[in-house]
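yo, TonB-dependent receptor plug domain-containing protein is done. seq:
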Amino acid sequence: MRNLTYYLCLAACSPLALHAETRSSSPSTYLGEIVLSTEERAAGSGSVTRVEGEQIERAQASTLVDVIRDVPGVNAIHRGSVLTSQPSIRGFGGNHHYPGDPATNVSVDGVSGDGGRIYQNATGMITDPALMKSVTVAMGPLASLEHGSGISAGSIAVETINGADLTGDEIGLKFRQMVGGNSNGDGWVTSSTLAWQPAQNLDFLLNYTRRAQGEQENGDGTLLGQRGFNVPNLMFKGRWRIDEANSLTFSHTRYESAERDVPYTSMMNSAVFGNVNRDREGSSTWLAWNYTPAVSSLIDLELRISRSEQISDVESLTPGKFSATAEGIYDQTTDRITLKNTSSLLTGAVSHRLRYGLDWSHQDRLRSPRPGQTRAEEAADYTRIGFFAIDNMEFGNDWQASLGLRVERQTIGDNLGGDYSATARTLGAGLEKGFGNGLSAFGSLTYTEGLASLDVYSGRYANGALHGDNVQQSRTYELGLKYEADSLFADGDSLTLGLTAYQTSIWNPMYSAAGNATLGYDMKGIELQANYAMEEGLYARGSVNFVDHTETALAGGVVTRKNYAYDPGHQLGLTVGKRFGNGLDMSWHVQAGEGVYSAARANAGWAVHDVKVSYTAQAGALEGVVFDLGIDNLFDRAYHTAISRLDEPGRNIKLNISKTF
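structure:
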């Protein structure tokens, strides 16, 4: 705690922070485009944070993790690595248990990417951040209810741009080119986006991105051991706004990668797992119909059909290690159909915003032997059908309430054991009260159950029934405050504050192997977030997370409580910057974490500083060209987060240049 307090005081006393508190001035407020969203969360639920616009563009992000690293409750793992970066929410995700853990969910344009443990990350990590229109991070189960069952930690939803976002919704062609490079690992990126709007109601988008990077070093000059990557990514998207009420949108994305002599697990360097060659291909295709008639407030309908496929060829290079048992060619296909509607209606004095829907999904996984292998094929699949409804109600006098329900049925099995069926139920309620001066308070209670994934379930295990017909259970309490004010310290300034305290208990947890002795988890935490902006262009945003995460285990017939193996530790994030009227934007960011110690590990406290300068040429031959220069880990600190077992990159100088023609 002393380390975190020190870094917090250091940040608060910086000249830029003092400047942001004392100066006032005139036109154009800039919030850094990270906002606490009230429209997208259930009344009474935990915070929902939306990152959008220029904040994404100026982040120099290589991955989704880079975009959301400022969000409270989120931990960024393996920054800048397209193939291994993962987000953690309240201590879940971002570790090698991530794919089999229902506590978190990542979706891109409404399509969840579950790559499975063998792939080590979801398809959403490959999406080019330059194509992201917004990223919404919902904390807790009530705010995440529509995304799936058992999401006790939170969810991340990415929305990509349409062609009309580049053309300004005007008929014509637009082309955006971005090139960039970084010093640590000699990385480079090129992203080419063509937008065509042949008619007012029709637009298309085509993007090709390739990111390449060699093996990076930590702050001590030691190689990180992940070898690097060279990943092409292609996306096509088209939208037809048929009339005022109807629209059709189609999207197809694919990527591929080839890795040689890399650790089997991307989350730790361990001789137990061994090294592999791994070739991967992935694709995601979806079609959505939206129907929103102006004459009815009861219909705001969306039907979405999607298919995602991931193929991974894993060749073990270390006989006798775990990688040898995992060797094979994996082909996983997931089909989904979702139908969702939002109805606005009045019942007496109560105003309702009712969102409800049905979703069906089916996943097949086939593991085939590699050439020369004698093992038999292994096939597994699941089918899920679910219903959800969440009613946000306004009673007047600034009282709001939410009731949420989700019921989901799953049948799961493989060709080595029997089939099992299970039903997951989620029920939550929240209450919120506004006090008329920008201050509001909220609280919620949610019970949720999570279904096993194909990584967790296996009929071949002696305790396979535990995974098949039982469910992971959790209960979450949330309490919080939110405050919004304008012209508080100076004319035209803007301040938003948010505080959420949560307690989550998880029992009958999902495991990734038989015989695991973990009985449950208890997560407690406080998340604080603040955004401040002045008319003259000064802005600041910060977050602080305090956590106390424990797990209960059975060892030798004795029940013990210990620190959670992936306790994220207390963390602080602060960004202070200035946006000038001549196209210049400068900012400084610090991320700090307290040391986390247990019988299994010791992780020292750390603080990492980043600086960024962005300039958009205002006139002349370079008019409209955007230069983004950043230095991550400015002081070349050797560190790793409490969740990961691998070091993060050392100092990394990045330069991106982009232009829209």
